[in-house]
């Protein structure tokens, strides 16, 4: 079957709104989980299988469907569905996919994002608005295709159509990316992971987006008291694309970038010892299974982060970025090792491999040292107890702040030696 166009803009006549408002009820559509489901068709032979997504709504709404990459995802926008009170884990079949999230996207719109784990084509997307009592049924069918046949939306046209950020053109900032000499304040950008319609990992009532924001605020206070200047990529429970997070770091003149997470892993990986805090560095060749799982969960942005390389050949761009990392990557490793050492010494339980490499896009930028602090795993009971304990978070923030400031002093001293 020849695939349909990958972007569908479907405007439906909204039925039943007037009668609902006459009764004083919300005019927004609601999701009926009892009649919604996500199904993988055929037998599991270790290969991607066709996906059928059925969403039962209380009333028809305008909606649009698209596939995007990095990693492959299905995105469905609604105008508008109220997802309040519904959990993605309650959708039948959701546990068969790498990830699913939904919630408010921007004023007047809601969004559903389904991580696919492989490349697909959109075969059908339809709404049945003839059901009793003014309801509607959205049916979406995805069929697996080879990577060469995957046709995601991308580029400036995609950004303009779907209100997503275009690659940033950031003016140079004096001293940005240069090694400090100790004469000026250290500038740190803290990046609390996830947020908004993307809550991140969830377990026993705790959500990654909330916990990382709470910890980032604590760490920011510690660093500020120690004499650093600190910016946060988000200060509330809001969605910030990866590309915008890196732009915020650059425009603030960041000397270092620290992304903060508290994730989850499948049971098989938990049995292998996925417990304790870990600091990650950029490594596109990392082949650890747990690291790959986490990279898929973290990299939910609309565009890959990184310096603006539009118009530059991919091979040349790779060489440029590798050259820039000859300075920033060793410094990032020293920062990661300093944090791991100080946190361990301060009684913070660390992973058996406290410093690791992973291909997290948020670490991809080569123009300043970047690390990702994985505070622990919400899927581990001990880690979850620590993450939700204010006293533990205070100790972790104290240790991380002390390590960062010591690293800055050592880095400035090393820079002075290089200049001689």
UniProtKB/TrEMBL annotation:
EC number assigned by the record: 3.5.1.28
Xref: InterPro entries: AMIN_dom, MurNAc-LAA_cat, N-acetylmuramoyl_amidase_3
Occurrences of domain MurNAc-LAA (ranges): 246-405
Signal peptide extent: none
SUPFAM superfamilies, A to Z: Zn-dependent exopeptidases
Entry annotated with the keyword Hydrolase: yes
UniProt KW keywords: Hydrolase
Keyword hit for Hydrolase: yes
Catalyzed reactions: Hydrolyzes the link between N-acetylmuramoyl residues and L-amino acid residues in certain cell-wall glycopeptides
CDD domains, sorted: MurNAc-LAA
Name of the protein: N-acetylmuramoyl-L-alanine amidase
Species assigned in the record: Paracoccus pacificus
């Amino acid at each position: 079957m020849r695939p349909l166009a990958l972007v569908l803009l479907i405007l439906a006549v909204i039925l039943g709104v007037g009668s609902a408002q006459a009764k004083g009820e919300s005019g927004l559509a609601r999701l009926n989980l009892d009649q919604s489901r996500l199904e993988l068709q055929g037998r599991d032979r270790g290969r991607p299988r066709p996906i059928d997504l059925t969403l039962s709504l209380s009333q028809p709404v305008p909606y649009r469907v698209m596939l995007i990459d990095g990693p492959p995802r299905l995105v469905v926008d609604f105008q508008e569905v109220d997802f309040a009170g519904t959990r993605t884990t309650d959708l039948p079949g959701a546990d068969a996919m790498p990830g699913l999230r939904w919630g408010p996207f921007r004023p007047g719109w809601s969004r559903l994002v389904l991580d696919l784990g492989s490349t697909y084509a959109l075969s059908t997307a339809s709404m049945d608005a003839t059901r009793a009592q003014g309801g509607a049924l959205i049916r979406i069918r995805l069929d697996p295709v080879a990577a060469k046949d995957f046709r995601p939306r991308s580029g400036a046209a995609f950004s303009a159509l779907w209100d997503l950020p275009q690659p940033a053109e950031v003016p140079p900032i004096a001293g940005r990316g240069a090694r400090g000499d100790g004469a000026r304040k250290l500038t740190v950008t803290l990046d609390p992971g996830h947020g908004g319609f993307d809550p991140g990992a969830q377990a026993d009532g705790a959500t990654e987006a909330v916990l990382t924001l709470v910890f980032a605020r604590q760490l920011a206070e510690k660093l500020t008291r120690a004499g650093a200047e600190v910016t946060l990529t988000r200060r509330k429970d809001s969605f910030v694309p990866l590309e915008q997070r890196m732009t915020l770091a650059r425009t603030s003149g960041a000397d270092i970038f620290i992304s903060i997470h508290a994730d989850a892993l499948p049971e098989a990986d938990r049995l292998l010892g996925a417990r304790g805090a870990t600091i990650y560095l950029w490594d596109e060749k990392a082949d650890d299974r747990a690291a790959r799982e986490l990279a898929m969960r973290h990299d939910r942005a609309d565009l890959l982060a990184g310096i603006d390389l539009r118009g530059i050949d991919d091979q040349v761009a790779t060489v440029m970025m590798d050259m820039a990392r000859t300075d920033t990557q060793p410094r990032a490793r020293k920062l990661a090792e300093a944090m791991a050492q100080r946190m361990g010494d301060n009684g913070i339980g660390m992973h058996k491999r406290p410093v690791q490499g992973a291909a997290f896009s948020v670490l991809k930028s080569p123009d300043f040292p970047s690390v990702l602090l994985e505070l622990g795993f919400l899927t581990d009971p001990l880690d979850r107890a620590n993450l939700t304990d204010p006293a533990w978070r205070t100790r972790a923030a104290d240790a991380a702040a002390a390590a960062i400031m010591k690293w800055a002093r050592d880095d400035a001293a090393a820079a002075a030696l290089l200049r001689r």
